[in-house]
Amino acid sequence: MNTITDHEQFSAAGDDAVPHEVQESIRALIRWAGDDPAREGLRDTPRRVARAWREYCRGYDEDPGEHLARTFDEVGGYDEIVMLRAIPFQSHCEHHMAPITGTATIAYLPAGRVVGISKLARVLNGYASRLQVQERLTAQVAQAIWDELAPRGVAVMIEAQHGCMTGRGVKTSGVGMITSRMLGCFLDDQQSRNEVLSLMNLRH
């Protein structure tokens, strides 16, 4: 028996169907922060915030790997690295629900099948549209490509800035966090690893 989650019920409902308990929770947070949720400027904020978070977390309603289901075999014998660089994304930290903004570079070495390049960005955004940590996001994107395309190698590199560091705590701006995940030949073969890192414009 399939269980429908609260998020799926919320997403299936119209834009105006924001559950009362969700709005009340946001009002409570506004009061706790020191403001009056009944004042004019904040009166519609609970509904707006709920709608925004439904959009931020739309990735829970999909399997990002499904974007890789349609592949192409007729590539004229091409068997070199395919790379999509500097794909912008936005996510939210699962520890403070603060924004994570950055770019990802995704590469794979085909084993006979390739996928439309926009699908790589869709996989990234599918996983980014959940509460995340950057390390897991990097690993999830790489694993999805590895599982669905069965390539000879996969490389994912993400560089991002974290609102939980820039807007609170140490309040240090301009700091980028870099994570990477290598699979297949990019992990096991030094020549292939050097090649993909060179294309990513990184020292190795």
Word description of this protein:
- By secondary structure, this protein is an alpha+beta fold.
- It has 8 helices and 7 strands, in the order αααββββαβαβαβαα.
- It has helices at 6-12, 20-33, 45-56, 117-128, 134-149, 163-166, 185-188, 190-199; strands at 71-72, 82-93, 99-109, 114-115, 131-132, 153-162, 177-184.
- The strands form 2 sheets. The protein has a 5-stranded mixed beta sheet with strand order 5-2-3-6-7, with helices on both faces. Strands 1-4 form a two-stranded antiparallel sheet.
Reconstruct the topology from this structure.
Elements: H1 6-12, H2 20-33, H3 45-56, E1 71-72, E2 82-93, E3 99-109, E4 114-115, H4 117-128, E5 131-132, H5 134-149, E6 153-162, H6 163-166, E7 177-184, H7 185-188, H8 190-199
Parallel strand pairs: 2-5
Antiparallel strand pairs: 1-4, 2-3, 3-6, 6-7
Helix pairs in contact: 2-3, 4-5
Count of individual beta strands: 7
What distance lies between the first and last C-alpha atoms, to the nearest angstrom? 51 Å
User: Beta-strand level of the residues, as a percent range?
Assistant: 15-25%
Quick one: overall form? elongated
Widest beta sheet: strand line-up = 5-2-3-6-7
Structural class: alpha+beta
What percent of the residues sit in helical stretches (DSSP H or I)? 25-40%
- Cα-based radius of gyration, to the nearest Å: 20 Å
Largest sheet: 5 strands, mixed
The averaged pLDDT comes out at 89
